[in-house]
Design a protein that fits this description.
Distance between the termini: 53 Å
Helix content: 40-55%
Largest sheet: 2 strands, antiparallel
Radius of gyration: 23 Å
Strand content: 15-25%
Shape: elongated
Order of helices and strands: EEHH
Number of helices: 2
Oligomer: single chain
Structural class: alpha+beta
Strand order of the largest sheet: 1-2
Length: 67
């Protein structure tokens, strides 16, 4: 990545990056925020108790496929 730095009154004010780098950074930030949300959810005591597949399937009204 080769950003272009724009200065204002001798101070660095802006960095202009190529669009493909901007998109990559944006995707990485979204992944990071998703990871933070996942970690928060996993650490929440309300999410510590697991449920069996059969209980979840029944709650969602899922049916087994016949072979």
């Amino acid at each position: 990545m080769e950003p272009q730095i724009i200065e204002k009154k001798g101070k660095k004010e802006f960095a202009v990056v190529p669009y493909k780098d901007f998109v990559r950074m944006q995707e990485e930030l979204e992944d990071y925020h998703d990871l933070l949300q996942l970690r928060r959810a996993k650490s929440d005591p309300r999410n510590q108790q697991g449920r069996s597949f059969n209980i979840v399937a029944a709650a969602l009204a899922l049916k087994k496929k016949r072979a």
